[in-house]
């Protein structure tokens, strides 16, 4: 686990595999403390390779023996070094039999084969298969698999692997076996095995071509009543991929399994997707509207990988965004389409952009900044990032913005016809889009190769006499680690013009034809000027509509212009954006006022604008809720050169309290009038109402009025669903009510008792306390000692530790450095258990160089302390980059 010197792997060093695998037979004799793995692999020399060496990878394996073409190899027949096993000068065709022993019960990394609640699961992406057996564990080696699983029949009645079940039977000593056959060639990272005491919800489903497929959702027995939504989401996913992309399910059986110990969200193993329970289990009692929405999108995401990931996979791990960026884009479009309305699409877009800005922009501006297609890594697991996923999805979206839905579809069709069954690169995807649309996209490749968030400056001039509007756009991308100079990007810049009544004006570019009321300017140079003609009056510009490119827009618009956009823009995204810009502008000056000890004030015009939005019942509740949610503390931090977490927190609290006071009556009305009727349904319209109602409640609780505490307590007691219950409890805990109302305090205990047996709800219980602005280090330390807390379960560790270190800015950055000390202590401990999860925790300090001086010192101390410990390769890479 510990490594003194880390090796850096470079994209430029890619070489083809010397040997390819046609087929692998795997036999598992499962036991928790010892599992025997026998791998029989047929290898064939790759004519494209100069080398005749077989290179296998392995980690934490006990090698029993290797037999090559019938002959047992002696130690001197191969060389092992740093996780590589090399057999030199091998003939063209070989059969290799490798016997190994592994120890699932000692595997706390949750990579390879491990145990969760006594059942067996695997996670092989990115390089987990090498913890199962010695193998050419790289994505460009694709093989068909036959898997035999043998295990105790009583303890492990269910035995699953990829593909089709071909045989089952009994064995002596109360054991049994199953044989699975996967006819599709796949890389080892898509291998999966599950064995244990599980039950399933199943259904037969008819595909568009008339074939019947078996769909299954496997869970532990007590969770069977929480699988309906996942099954519905799966069926929606299948239908959507058929209709939007013409892509059908290629198997007779598709299985989903939920596991409570899991490092990430979920995994697209061929025909056997494995999920973190939090993205499967739902019923109204335990899951919130957000949980329901996340389940739908993650089930979609993993299902869509079957084509964008499994059928066409990545040549090497630098190409990760080829499958992840594309599949995130697909799941975003899926969720947007399922809302069934334009405003639903806008809500989804706003949420996605909020995530991008809140998490990816800081990454792109920090020590871990890397291109969507990275050039180098020490540990690939550190590159499952918001840049590869979310910025990657924005890059894919830009093709669709440039070529339209039809052009994008043509590109997808060409991509599959060229590359089905192969392991390819981001450039192959770009070439398919370019060729299908007859366009040279060489400049567009810079979105894959250059890190950093480009800034686009807009300046405009209206000529009243000529009735022309000139729009000058210029771009600049700041330097990032290893990339000082950047070339201009090709930026699709969507724009519209509003007249003084708020209507969209017709657009005509000089020398061009009419372009409707919204058009895409293509910015490709460092700076360019566009001229609109026949512009009847001085317009208000609606820039970067629907966030048409992942850039930071620098455009000075007056409050009046922003207020005009907020009330009239036909682009829902930009209406929201205008409100956020008005709020952010004020939060920045309020933060400065806090720092300078000046009195804090909020102008009436702003409060009135918020009032208008809040009372505008023609707008969907979901859109109003988004518009009235203030930019997060992290978003404000992004706009400041130096981060003063306490000043930011106070500024935002002041703004919330002031808006609560000034709009008290309207918040009350919003809370009263947005109750949902009848039984709970997780549909967008109802979810939007609940979101607005609960936002209103949280504003009202900022008033410190016992009446509202009582109102929240009643909402908690009356709630027939987790959304309303959790929102009430969170608002109570995060407001002053908790300390003044013994009744409120009792609810926390009540909640715990009620949901003691629902792990995912207990995670919520930990995290709502960890993120409270009142939760100091003592509260967190007490929670760490709670019997239900454990570092070994990633969800639990995240709920408390990440909740505090990542989502509690005010308390984590305590002036005495106690938050940082807490971070370093737990990071070191977690790293010994689970390097992958620890490396994520390490990222909490990304921004430390931008903290105010008094915090920089203790932050650096904490980082140095960590760096002096023996660390996993994962955590070492992050800490070194953070300190450099
Ligand atoms: N491919 C998975 C997804 O759908 C993520 C797996 C990441 N696993 C890991 N160990 N880094 O996004
Ligand atoms: Zn994915």
Task: Give an overview of the whole structure.
The chain is of the alpha+beta class and 884 residues long. The protein is 41% helix and 21% strand. The chain contains 27 helices and 31 strands. It has an 8-stranded mixed β-sheet with strand order 6-5-9-3-2-12-15-14, with no helix packed on it. β25 and β26 form a beta hairpin. α24 (818-833) packs parallel to α26 (853-867). It is globular, with a radius of gyration of 28 Å. It binds arginine and zinc ion. Arginine is lined by residues 123, 125-126, 263-264, 266-268, 301-302, 305, 324, 381, 384. Residues 301, 305, 324, 327 line the site of zinc ion.
Bin the helical content: 40-55%
Oligomer: single chain
Q: How many distinct helices?
A: 27
Unreliable parts: none
Strand fraction equals 15-25%
Report the count of strand segments.
31
User: How would you describe the shape?
Assistant: globular
End-to-end distance, in Å? 23 Å
- Gyration radius over CA: 28 Å
Strand count, sense and closure of the main sheet? 8 strands, mixed
Spatial ordering of strands, largest sheet: 6-5-9-3-2-12-15-14
List the topology elements:
Layout: E1 9-10, E2 19-29, E3 35-45, E4 54-57, E5 62-68, E6 71-72, E7 79-81, E8 84-87, E9 93-102, E10 112-116, E11 119-123, E12 143-152, E13 158-161, E14 164-171, E15 175-186, E16 193-196, E17 199-206, E18 212-219, H1 228-245, E19 253-259, E20 266-267, E21 272-276, H2 289-304, E22 313-314, H3 320-339, H4 342-364, E23 376-377, H5 386-419, E24 423-424, H6 426-436, H7 446-449, E25 455-463, E26 468-476, E27 491-498, E28 519-523, E29 527-532, E30 540-543, E31 552-554, H8 559-568, H9 572-596, H10 604-615, H11 621-628, H12 633-638, H13 645-662, H14 664-673, H15 684-701, H16 706-718, H17 722-734, H18 737-740, H19 742-754, H20 759-770, H21 777-784, H22 794-807, H23 809-812, H24 818-833, H25 835-842, H26 853-867, H27 873-883
Parallel strand pairs: 2-12, 18-19, 19-21, 22-24, 25-31
Antiparallel strand pairs: 1-23, 2-3, 3-9, 4-8, 5-6, 5-9, 7-8, 10-11, 12-15, 13-16, 14-15, 17-18, 20-21, 25-26, 26-29, 27-28, 27-30
This protein binds arginine (ARG) and zinc ion (ZN).
